Amino acid sequence: MDLHYTRTAKFLHWLIALLLISQFAFGYWLDEIPRGTPDRGFFINLHKSTGIVIGLLIILRIVWRLLHTPPALPSSTPRWQQRAAAASHFVLYACMLLMPLSGYLASNFSKHGVKLFNAVRLAPWGSDDKLLYTIFNQTHQVTAVLLAAFVGLHILAVLKHQLIDRDHLLSRMLPRSSR
């Protein structure tokens, strides 16, 4: 029985974690740039572009996870914790899909659209529609908060397993842990 995640799963996990944390900070910082300024448009397009790239990496991560069964939790893990882990992972993946998708859709119903890395304008899927933009943008923002909360819960669970249970669950996902 394999106790560790694959190297690809570990790489995608840590890359996406780093990119998501950076993207959260970037998104939060964007609120500091005054609306209607050229700088804001430039940085918003960078946020959109990196969000698209992260979204594609998340799809790759999900496909990898579906094709490669993750290692089972230790048999000593109580059933309720196993169910909680499965449910929280489902919510994490759902949020990781919904957040970039809703942001991208919001951009497609805005007069600004998406200018990929400020170089290539992507054709919008729809017209400038304030209602659809608002729905997708609110979904993007609410999902970001929900994702941040579940990432925090994920980190707390890892700390509990590492510091209290001392079951070495973290080693399964560390980049240098052996298979």
Low-confidence stretches: none
CATH superfamily: Transmembrane di-heme cytochromes, Chain C
Rg over CA atoms, rounded to whole Å, is 19 Å
Note the overall shape. Answer: elongated
- The CATH topology, please? Fumarate Reductase Cytochrome B subunit
Total of helices = 4
Major sheet: 2 strands, antiparallel
The number of E-state strands comes to 2
CATH architecture: Up-down Bundle
Proportion of strand residues: under 5%
Helix content: 55-70%
User: What's the helix-strand series?
Assistant: HHHEEH
**Derived structural class:** mainly alpha
Query: CATH top level?
Result: Mainly Alpha
Overall mean pLDDT score? 93
Largest sheet: spatial strand order = 1-2
Separation, N- and C-terminal Cα atoms: 10 Å
How many domain regions?
1
InterPro entries: Cyt_b561_bac/Ni-Hgenase, Cytochrome_b561_oxidase, Di-haem_cyt_TM
Membrane topology: Multi-pass membrane protein
Main location: membrane
Protein name: Cytochrome b
